[in-house]
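Below is our example:

___
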Amino acid sequence: SKLMWILKCYCFPLRHETMVSTLKSFKISGENVRELRFLLHGPVGAGKSSIINTIKSIFEGHQFINCLTASDLTGESFTTKYEKYNVGDVPFTFYDVMGLEKGQSKGVDTNDVISALKGHISKDYTFKPLDPIDEANRYYIPNPTLNDQIHCLVSVIPADKISMMDDEVIQKMKEIRAAASKLGIPQVVFMTRVDKVCEMTEKDITKLYQSRKIKEKCSNRLGVTMNCIFPVKNYSEETKANEKLNCLMLEALTQIVHSANDFVKKNSNQLKKE
């Protein structure tokens, strides 16, 4: 509720420390799974790489800018390889893929993203829009384990540019989400650039509860339920740590960690039975 969100905003310093401590001590509920794996996908310029930078900045105690980012939806993706990013000393790994674009000859091929979800692609694989990975490729993993698979799919959408997104890109995202559903992989949406939606959120990020219309629009276009959409803000112009920004990201991260862990636990138990 709005009241609960307001109360959270007044407790940012305490919540920040508590969430970081809880995540650092998190134990995965699955045998032979060393790390929870998250795959970020979305249109060019949505903020996939910036999310990784922000999360690494929170856990590593300094501004992390080693992950190159694209500036907007109309540019080209800086990410051309299947990049793996570890986060401090927590058992979470993020995978970044080439951005989705309009047309078959541009951006990441949806088949490559689906192969990555299944665990068939190893890090440093170079994406080729017209030539998705096959079994002959040296980066192809023929028999992926539960540890090789992706445990949670994160769709990244810019709040201020939802209406500008091409229908073809939206359709590609839906195809990837449909494949994840068949695999039983949990899915969420990280809605970036929420501070650009209105002057109120730009001045005070804690006013996000008033951005419900944007969440509804995102829900309608992607077919995602409202409770699976998490508003976040990435570090961009900031040069110092921002507890409000950190808490917003930590809230979203905590949710996907539990979703991924539930997936691992379920599949690990299934493997034991077999």
About this structure: The two ends are 43 Å apart (CA to CA). The chain has one domain: 36-140+157-272. The chain has a mean pLDDT of 84. Residues 36-140+157-272 form a domain with the Rossmann fold fold (CATH 3.40.50).
